[in-house]
Amino acid sequence: MTFSELGLRETVLQSIKELGFEAPTPIQQKAIPHLLKSNSDFVGLAQTGTGKTAAFGLPLINNITSQKSLPQGLIICPTRELCLQITKDLENYAKNDPYVQVVAVYGGVDIRRQMTLLKNATIIVATPGRLCDLIDRKAAKLTEVSYVVLDEADEMLNMGFKEDIDRILEETPFDKNVWLFSATMPQEVARIAKNYMTTPLEVAIGHKNQSNENIEHIYYSVKEKDRYAALKRLIDVNPDIFGVVFCRTRTETQSVAEKLGKDGYNAEPLHGDLSQAQRDNVMKRFRERTLQLLVATDVAARGIDVDSITHVINYNLPDDIENYTHRSGRTARAGKKGQSLVLVNTRETGKIRAIERQIRTKFTEGAIPSSEVICGIQLSSLISKVKETEVKEADIAKFLPQIMDDFADLTKEEVIKKFISVEFNRFIEYYERAGDLNAHPEKGERGERGRDRDRDFRRGGDDRDADKTRFFVNLGKRDGLNPGGLLRVICDETGLKSSNIGKIDVLPSFSFFEASNEFVSNILDNVNGSQFEGNTLKIEITKNDRSGGGGSRNGGGRSNFGGGRERRGGRGDERNGSGRRSESRGRNSRSKAY
Ligand code: AMP
Fold first, then answer.
1. 319 Cα–ligand 1 center, Å
2. CA distance 230 to 454
3. Which of 96, 304, 483, 488 is the 20 to 30 Å CA partner of 106?
4. 154 and 183 Cβ atoms separated by less than 8 Å
């Protein structure tokens, strides 16, 4: 089937040609002919990577044939990243229809400029919170909107945008067309379809909730304490990896990214505590592939539309199983193949079965590769790179006599060995005594000596006691905090003695401290919310964190539990299911991933 057979008009077909799309994808084949009709309510169950943006974007541009003074199309999506991506795609589809003005509105930036831009908008692409603000300010007029697209509807509801979506839809005309796209179909999404649509065409690409079949799902059982070392092995065994590492909390995301950075990997964090400028910068580098590994929370990574991601690594499983579909959907896009790797501890294998049922796909049980395997793979990768390296004969010519002279006393074999060793020594040194990381529950808790070495590679050891809990504090040196000051607040608020508190690390933007596990509830209940020199202290338990002693590599990437996100009435564009702020409430509570 060709695009012209779908009924699109000439200018749109020309744009498709310029984009290099040769044939419509399955969702496009099914959606486009329907969406070109005058009554076209639609529910599309499709993962990202299936071409769903063009499935709604092309007919939307096609249907808008004149510039009216008010917007005719409205697309609502969960995150700023997705908003910008959709806007870019739509601008490409409308390249040959210059009267179509696509305007993106999202939180975290100056609202006044968006108010000005909206005056000429034909299509608005918006995140819900900011659009409600603009409606309140009478800057977004939706009375002429004929098409409303709800993209990633399940995710918007997960993020607590239910009321905002209802509010926005109430502002639009009764006889509009609603096109809803969602990776999954929970009850809440079905409710929107029921309330706002009339006999929509429902198209599912694959089964409902089914995963993309180009993704291979593999899980690895490791002991909790070996999770980070196992992550590094999964990276090392894939030398050409271009991937996203998913963590559950912002703290964990920051910590894992920092540890990887210190250990020599090309990795950066992406989470809601980073400023918008920092997030944009990270995403730019990732898109340009100068960044190899993105360490992200579920919400921050939504809307990442980067093709060619080879691997998704689940450092921890998501709290909400449905998020697994979203995570793994970052790889195997546009017909490519990819792997979704999951690290689980032995108690979590039940969750793997639950995900298998949800995505209707089986996981393979993988084994964390041994040091020999990793060294072999790294070595052959290095040799291939050396062989493929282009020699710029003209540029090197003038240095050659000196180079030849310097190596004159070495044989060819010695030169090869030395050049390989420049790169390869770090792997040999790290892995020479590294043990098996696969969890064998029957073997007892103590691991081989190699594991300790594994953890300490390239960054100095950590003798943290398993009986202690490590806490993250949202304030650091920049807030005037020092170890004595932090100790005073903790002791004042909890009644504990200073000897009850362990190691304290005060870093530029945040801090850590340790205390015996028995004091966890007391500390969480009493220190959280207390004041330090006019700032509210917020603490949470760090998960598997060993980043003490290192500084934030992101300057302003402070964990302020709320900054840098779209704000409307104090709420962010990135929130948990109920729109509540996440907090640690007790020993076993976890902060939700933002
Ligand atoms: P989406 O599911 O909208 O995120 O699209 C995934 C990727 O597929 C994007 O990079 C699109 O540009 C690309 N794409 C969409 N439709 C087609 C098509 N018909 N042929 C080739 N690539 C496409």
1. 29
2. 9
3. 96
4. yes
What predicted TM-score, i.e. pTM, was given to this entire model?
A: 0.50
Work out the burial of residue 173: count CB atoms within 10 Å of its CB; fewer than 13 is exposed, 13-18 middle, 19 or more buried.
exposed
- Residue that has been written with the tokens 């995150």 in this structure: 79
Single-letter amino acid, residue 142: L
Distance CA 26, CA 328 (A): 20
pLDDT digits (tens, 9 = 90+) for 183-195: 888 888 899 888 8
| HSE of 73, CA atoms in CB hemisphere, 13 A | 27
**Torsions phi, psi for 265 (to 5 deg):** -90, 155
CA angle 363–255–374, rounded 5-degree value: 50
| Best CA proximity match to 558, nearest among 488, 479, 482 | 479
Distance 24 CA to ligand 1 centre (A): 9
Please give the structure tokens belonging to residue 313.
């690594």
Nearest atom (ligand 1) to Cα of 24: 19
Considering only CA atoms, which residue is closest to atom 21 of ligand 1? 21
C-alpha separations of 349 from 133, 352, 360, 365 in Å: 44, 5, 16, 10
State pLDDT tens for residues 8-25: 999 999 999 999 998 999
pLDDT tens for each residue of 453-488: 333 222 223 335 677 888 888 888 877 788 778 888
Is 212 near ligand 1, meaning CB less than 6 Å away? no
Is residue 303 in contact with ligand 1, taking CB distance under 6 Å?
no
For the CA of 3, the closest atom of ligand 1 is 19
Residue 77 contacts residue 127 (beta carbons within 8 Å): yes
Distance CA 487, CA 497 (A): 9
Beta bridge pairs of residue 506: 511
Ligand 1 contacts CB of residue 261 (under 6 A): no
Indicate if ligand 1 lies below 6 Å from the C-beta of 58: no
Task: Please write the tens of the pLDDT for every residue from 202-255.
Answer: 998 854 444 567 889 999 999 888 999 999 999 999 999 999 999 999 999 999
DSSP class of residue 568? Answer: B
Could you give all domains of the chain from N- to C-terminal order, each with its CATH number? Answer: 3-204 (3.40.50.300), 215-370 (3.40.50.300), 372-389+397-431 (no CATH), 460-580 (3.30.70.330)
Any alpha helices (H) in 288-411, and if so which ranges? 298-301, 322-328, 349-359, 371-388, 393-397, 400-406
Neighbours of 49 (CB within 10 A): 22
In degrees rounded to 5, what are phi and psi of residue 269? Answer: -85, 155
Residues listed for the chain: 594
Task: Give the whole-angstrom CA distance, residue 575 versus residue 578.
Answer: 8
DSSP code per residue over 13-65:
HHHHHHHT--S--HHHHHHHHHHTSSS--EEEE--TTSSHHHHHHHHHHHH--
Q: What is the DSSP letter of 550?
A: P
Phi (first) and psi of residue 365, to 5 degrees: -85, 120
